[in-house]
Each structure stands twice: as structure tokens, then as C-alpha cells.
Amino acid sequence: xxxxxxxxxxxxxLARLTLSDSEQELFASQMxxxxxxxxxxxxxxxxxxxxxxxxxxMENAFRPDVVQASIGIxxxxxxxxxxxxxxxxxxxxxx
Length: 95
Hints:
Elements (H helix, E strand, L loop, with lengths): L4 H10 L6 H19 L33 H4 L6 E2 L2 E2 L7
Antiparallel strand pairs: 1-2
Helix pairs in contact: 1-2
């Protein structure tokens, strides 16, 4: 499969890139080589192979949501470097 220079220009325009003539030629040849390599995958016999999202079976590792009591404001702010009432005190980040 061959990528044309017009296709490279189109993609560069979409990405808002300015490419020199030599860069366009380089990228066209590199992308064509990549697509040619990927085309070799079509030669593989995949009959009887089920499509999968993962190579190994996966299960949900999350625990079920359970309503629990909060740790409370005092315990949450116990090690805070600064505190103002029930909030963390942080240095200003906007000048």
C-alpha cells in the first residue's frame, strides 16, 4: 500500500503541522513501509481463533461498593500541614 504526498499533506493540515518537501517525502515512504508490513498480517491463518481483548482471561478485580461510615473531618485533617476550619489550607497557586 502506498501513501501519496497528497495524503501526507492532508494529515499534516489536520494536525496543523508544516512539513518541508523532504519531510513529506520521508513520511510518505515511512508510512508506506509501515502499512506494507502490517499487510503481511493478512497472510496469517486466523481460522478458529476467537477475537479477544486480552491475551489471558480477565475478571473484574474491584470489590463491590459498600456504604461505610466516613473517617471524619478531624481524622482526615489530622496530618494536614495547614487547616482552616474544616478544610485543608494550601498556599496560593495563582499570582
